[in-house]
Write a structure and sequence with these properties.
Distance between the termini: 39 Å
Largest sheet: 10 strands, mixed
Order of helices and strands: EHEEHEEHEEEHEHEHHHHHH
Strand content: 15-25%
Radius of gyration: 19 Å
Shape: globular
Number of strands: 10
Number of helices: 11
Structural class: alpha/beta
Length: about 300
Amino acid sequence: MTAAGHWPSVGVVIPTRNRPELLRRAVAGIVAQDYPGPVRTIVVFDQHDPDVSLCRGGERPLDVLPNLRRPGLAGARNTGIVALDTDLVAFCDDDDMWRPTKLRRQVHALQQRPQAEFCTCAIEVEFGDRLTPRLAGASLIGLDDLVRSRMAMLHSSTFLVRRSAFAPDEMGLVAEDAPGSQNEDWDLLLRAARRGEIVHADEPLVRVLWGRSSMFAYEYATKMASLRWMMSRHPEIAASTTGAGRVYGQLACWSAATGNRRDAWRWTKAAMRSNWREPRAAIALAAVTGVVKVESVLGALHRRGHGI
């Protein structure tokens, strides 16, 4: 609660594209929140017409909008952010679902640190019939943490941000020039962490659906382009032996998955020069030599709630 005893208003942005059944599950999770304060949801339909049957009034109103900005996930999120006038803004992807206590626990954590702008929480990964919790093991996340690792448990569906931070002269909106709207969430986390530590509620308050339902599951060229975009946008990643090794290892794996042996070798060498212990270099090497397929490794990792 605030000092005045009032719970701040929360606006929830759900970007969606052609996944009506999953979307309704995500909306149900928001409606079921035990949060005592006002909650407003905006569903932004990207590259197709809004479903007005979703609209509702009452204490938990829901509105629908078309994506009025650049096509893609980032533009859809920004459309929702700009349309809101709430104290806080939360993200929820259309294939994810919040636990009933999610907002209340996060708002409480954020209010314990009045200067903080950004709050996340842990997740549980749903892959097939298996659920795997992913915890951070910390209540505060700093810039160095995010440079060394993407920290997958800090998923976009866990983001809760003071709306004022999205102003152009502050943190700013979601980056719409991210290739394929990939890694825009990591970019936003890094920009937020430059301004101050991120508050983290280390409980799995969001269920994240992994696998082929993802819009980006096997778009390797886009994955590689977004990683190179991140490296150019955040030079501190390249300056970190662990962070650079991780990204180079991913580039090696995605290159191997596309059959580009030359680039796979090049990025594998770069990963090992940065961090000889980087496990993704070994995965890429095994894929290049035909020992394994990247997809097989990725599937095994997803079953355990992890990725490459």
